[in-house]
Write a structure and sequence with these properties.
The protein is α+β, with helices and mostly antiparallel strands. It is built from two helices and eleven strands. The strands form two sheets. Strands 3, 4, 5, 6, 9, 10 and 11 form a seven-stranded antiparallel beta sheet that branches.
Amino acid sequence: MTSKDCGGGGGFFRLILGVILFLVFIVLFVVFLIWLILRPTKPHFILQDATIYYLNVTSPNTLTATFQVTLATRNPNQRIGVYYDRADVFASYRNQQITLPTRLPPTYQGHKDVIVWSPFLYGISVPVAPYLGMSLQQDQNNGLVVMNIKIDGRVKWKVGTWISGKYRLNVNCPAYITKGNNFGNNNNNNN
């Protein structure tokens, strides 16, 4: 009878694989532990006010508008600060941008801190689609204009002395503007 040698080799490869799996487990455990301690959360944005000073749609489908919006942002993190490197605010109507972007000043937001911005948004002779011009005039006549105030920018996170790389910031705040004190009139008459 002949005996077969099944070979006991491969112990070295099992040891290397075990060490690699152990290191991966340690790295994942450290990442989970850091997340558990810091509990990172995105800043919360609130549109506090939107005022239309002027809104006019002219015949070749161009729009001229002046708005002032008041935005507040709150950092809900207890151990993480936020650097707003670049943030642009603009208004859009039915997914079409109707004002130029207004750059907000670079700002640091500390732990549990609140920041309030009140930028003016301008759009002078902005070309719009023909159906948007008619729709906007119809909404004005009905006394309610629904617009979106958007923020597009880059932020950095700060934990202790460590500052992260840049991350994209996209904020979309719907604004329901009714006829009254904060509603622009295309005839420049006060209502």
